[in-house]
Design brief:
heterodimer, A: about 375 residues, mainly alpha, 14 helices, about 70% helix, globular, B: alpha/beta, Rossmann fold, 3 domains, six-stranded mixed beta sheet
């Protein structure tokens, strides 16, 4: 061995060779996370309920600490805000149906792992087209007008989803950015439509369309003007559930979502499935726009979608793409929303305070999913320390 | 009696409901080469990962040099002088060899490239490696990357080296080189633990063999006192017949001809170069080659999943007619619709052959869910088929609707092979059909392939274990650099020759008419 190499050796040993004979007093990590797959159905429910109870407790503490109000009163106000009167119940239900409808529209795309975050835009263009029909075709017989409205809004939504789908299928572009940007185009289009249909002049709003004739408004059935909303959304919910679970199309969507390679191996035309699925997804979102305009607000503005296109993403995910669960989640979110609005005005709470409560509750609901999938192991205290 | 380097006492590790290591108590002696032998899923890697700080044991104690230690992360392991080379390399592609050595070392010293390179050269010389410190990782072959991983572990001062299935990616020649290095390390007083399931390697390189079965420690025996059948019995827990049958080819019928097949991958690199051969019904055609030499593209081209250069031709001959059907340019669906029963067990089982989140039943209909006019999928037939396969092949699963990705590797493969065979194929292509499977399952698969062969099916078997290829296949086609580098008779071929052809192009295999073209290409470069 040459002199130089010897130096290298000693250096190596000095630098690298650790003092192995005096191991540091290392301790077991305080907490470790372990995956679990064995949780029973009842346990899952129990974890979720615990989550909600904890959320209410923490919110109560926060409410009391900040406002000195009695938390029970605040919760009562929330409930009465959402379900206190017939009008309030319907308003909450209307909101829930909107969220469900959009989430149902997102379900096939998400099932295929196509991140359609353009529901906001798809709803808006559906709404614009519906408003246009109501304004220009108000003299048509009612059934024809409705048929035209439904078809046109679905076409518009489908077109809005078709463009990103085509680019994804042909050139594998990123659908997240594309669908997101399509939202802004839709918002600008809405501004244009509002300017064009302004009524009364100078108000910078469209106002209530066909206030006197009620042409193109969903009819009042069984004493409620939201009858058609309920029927349409429930039909869509059932249809989408069956479509995703029991049809050949649904099977193809699941395979493409899991792995494009597997899909190609199985002889599935991946591009065609992407485009077909997004046409459906966009169409349902477009129809949601129609429901929002013709079945609820009877007007169009840039806030017609009002962020529901994004909230629906949360709904779809929390429901794990099960359309019936979406009804429940939507109800929860709609309840929180109207309840929060109520406490903001009734208890003279700042709007942000009520948003905080919503945040706390959502946080605990999401948190319980973590405890359903993972287990924590804590260091056995004292035993090793000695 | 040799000193003890590492002692494990009652070490237990569980993942959810799966017990990966159950009360393992064993010793590793200083300066020995210890083989850790066991079937897949027997907990070898998990056990070693606890020594190298990847996992933390749920119970039990670890002693290094007689001291009780707690290994929380790889850094702790290095401080104790334990280093592990994982099966999947952990290198940064765009860095040089020397740079990769020092990543992650927590030191406030200035980075001295010259010093690093010097130490690296010194390690190489001492143990007989060959490695240029300035070479980038993306320019390295698999075997070079592995070498670098070993140097990295040595550079960090490991006295105890753990190698996880190091030979899985190497040719026989490279394996020999690696073993020479391992012996050098032993000379130098290092302790080496090799995780493997290849028996002949165990016998040729190690001093002692420790055997794990289903997470439990069985025993450690001196290699000198062991032979293949003893080890297998300890590993499996019962006597296993270690001979692969190779029934005589009865009635060879031409089933596929592949002519002038040239393919390019997504990056435009030529992966198959003018490949031509025939496939016959009633024989098993083995395809040997270092992984990534065009095997994947070859099978996918036949299956209709890979496009090819225009002069290529793949023709299929119907069993009872002279008529031939060109396959190239058709999609898998079109090929099916023509009545060609082509079954394909791809390398990526869960990423291509099966849908991991779906159960057995739903996976059964992957290829024929379209049958029937109904808008809805028929679920009755797939369920029956799934039950049948579960019973006949002994698939261990909680139920036919349990997602298949939750099954063990062997069971996943049984599901896939079962489905492909259930289609009554005339051509059955398999890529690395026994990779990662335990001995019993592997022999089940060999048996199934032989059954198909006897039925007159043309079987294509892409494999990596040369011993198996030599025992199972009637003919062996060697791929090297995307070229056919000889087609040998499986009954007479020598292992060394196949190994050589895998790594070095032979003159006799290059088609003569193409020589002129090749030299043109060379000039163009």
């Amino acid at each position: 061995m040459t002199e130089e190499k010897k130096t290298a050796t000693t250096e190596l040993e000095e630098n690298e060779a650790p003092a192995v004979h005096e191991p540091k007093p290392l301790k077991e990590p305080i907490v470790r996370i372990v995956k679990r797959e064995d949780m029973k159905f009842a346990q899952r429910i129990a974890v979720r309920l615990t989550g909600i109870v904890l959320a209410l407790l923490v919110s109560a503490i926060v409410i009391y600490a900040i406002t000195k109000y009695n938390p029970i009163t605040v919760y009562e106000t929330m409930i009465s805000g959402a379900f206190g009167t017939r009008t309030r119940i319907w308003s909450t239900v209307k909101e829930m149906l909107m969220l469900t409808c959009i989430a149902v529209g997102l379900a096939p795309a998400f099932r295929m792992r196509f991140w359609n975050i353009g529901a906001e835009g798809q709803v808006l263009v559906g709404g614009i087209v519906t408003a246009g029909c109501m304004i220009y075709l108000k003299d048509l017989p009612s059934p024809v007008l409705f048929a035209v409205m439904f078809c046109a809004s679905m076409l518009a939504g489908a077109l809005w989803a078709f463009l990103p789908a085509l680019f994804k299928a042909k050139w594998n572009t990123n659908e997240t950015l594309f669908t997101l940007m399509m939202n802004y185009v839709a918002i600008q289009l809405t501004s244009f439509a509002v300017a064009k249909w302004e009524n009364p002049f100078g108000s910078n709003t469209v106002g209530v369309i066909n206030q006197n004739t009620r042409a193109g408004w969903f009819p009042t059935v069984l004493g409620t003007q939201y009858f058609l909303n309920v029927v349409l959304v429930l039909l869509l919910t059932v249809f989408m559930f069956v479509y995703l679970r029991y049809t050949k199309h649904g099977y193809e969507i699941a395979v493409v979502g899991e792995s494009e390679n597997t899909a190609r191996y199985a002889g599935i035309n991946v591009g065609a499935v992407i485009i077909r699925t997004l046409l459906l997804s966009g169409a349902v979102c477009g129809l949601a726009g129609c429901i929002a305009v013709s079945g609820a607000s009877h007007t169009i503005s840039t806030s017609t979608a009002g962020g529901r296109g994004f909230t629906a993403i949360i709904v779809a995910w929390l429901a794990k793409f099960n359309t019936f669960t979406m009804l429940l989640i939507s109800l929860l979110l709609a309840f929180l929303d109207s309840g929060a609005g109520e406490i903001a005005s009734k208890c003279k709470l700042n709007d942000y305070a009520s948003q905080m409560i919503i945040g706390i509750i959502l946080f605990f609901i999401l948190g319980s999913e973590f405890f359903i999938n993972y287990r924590l192991i804590f260091r056995k205290s004292g035993k090793e320390a000695a | 009696m040799a000193e003890t380097a590492i002692a494990l006492k009652h070490v237990t590790k569980t993942f959810g409901s799966v017990v990966a290591n159950d009360d393992v108590t064993m010793e590793i002696r200083k300066g020995e080469i210890l083989s850790l032998l066991g079937e897949n899923g027997s907990g070898k890697t998990t056990l070693m990962n606890m020594l190298s700080g990847i996992y933390y044991p749920d119970g039990g104690e670890i002693f290094v040099d007689g001291n009780k230690v707690t290994i929380r992360d790889p850094k702790d392991a290095y401080e104790l002088g334990i280093g592990m080379v994982h099966q999947h390399f952990k290198l940064v592609d765009v860095f040089t060899a020397a740079e990769n050595l020092v990543i992650g070392i927590d030191s406030h010293k200035k980075l001295n490239r010259k010093e690093i390179a010097e130490s690296m050269r010194w390690i190489c010389e001492k143990y007989g490696f060959r490695m240029d410190p300035e070479k980038k990782v993306y320019d390295m072959s698999v075997s070079e990357k592995q070498t670098l991983e070993i140097i990295k572990v040595l550079y960090r001062g490991a006295r105890i080296l753990i190698l996880d299935e190091p030979t899985a990616v190497l040719t026989p020649q490279e394996t020999e080189k690696l073993f020479a290095v391992i012996r050098n390390m032993k000379e130098d007083g290092k302790t080496v633990i090799i995780i493997t399931h290849k028996l002949h390697e165990v016998l040729s390189v190690s001093d002692r063999v420790a055997i794990l079965r289903k997470g439990a420690y069985i025993d450690t025996i001196e290699t000198a006192k062991a032979d293949e059948s003893i080890l297998t019995e300890m590993m499996v827990g019962e006597k296993v017949e270690l001979n692969i049958e190779r029934p005589e080819v009865k009635d060879k019928k031409k089933r596929l001809t592949i002519q002038n097949l040239t393919c390019y991958n997504a990056e435009g690199v030529k992966v198959l170069d003018d490949v031509s051969f025939n496939v016959y019904g009633g024989e098993i055609l083995g395809i040997a080659g270092v992984s990534g030499n065009g095997q994947k593209e070859l099978l996918e081209a036949i299956a209709g999943l890979q496009s090819a250069a225009p002069e290529a031709q793949i023709d299929y001959f119907l069993p009872d007619a002279e008529e031939k059907i060109p396959l190239l340019g058709k999609t898998p669906r079109q090929i099916r619709d023509l009545g060609v029963h082509l079954s394909f067990v791809p390398e990526d089982r869960l990423g291509m052959g099966l849908v991991g989140t779906m159960g057995m039943a739903e996976n059964m209909m992957l290829k024929d869910y379209r049958s029937g006019k109904s808008f809805f999928v028929g679920k009755k037939h797939p369920k029956e088929l799934a039950e049948k396969i579960r019973e006949e092949l002994g698939v261990v699963t909680p139920g036919i609707s349990t997602p298949v990705r939750r099954l063990s590797g062997g069971n996943v493969q049984k599901v896939l092979v079962g489905r492909e065979i259930a289609e009554n194929p005339t051509v059955l292509m398999t890529a690395y059909a026994v990779r990662g499977l335990d001995i019993n399952t592997s022999y089940t698969i060999y048996h199934l392939l032989n059954e198909q062969k006897m039925k007159g099916v043309a079987v294509i078997y892409v494999g990596e274990d040369l011993d198996v290829l030599m025992e199972l296949c009637d003919r062996i086609l060697v791929l090297c650099g995307g070229k056919v580098n000889g087609i040998l008779d499986g009954r007479t071929a020598k292992k060394e020759e196949v190994g050589l052809r895998m790594t070095k192009l032979q003159n006799d295999s290059a088609p003569k008419k193409k020589t002129a073209k090749k030299s043109e290409e060379g000039a163009a470069k």
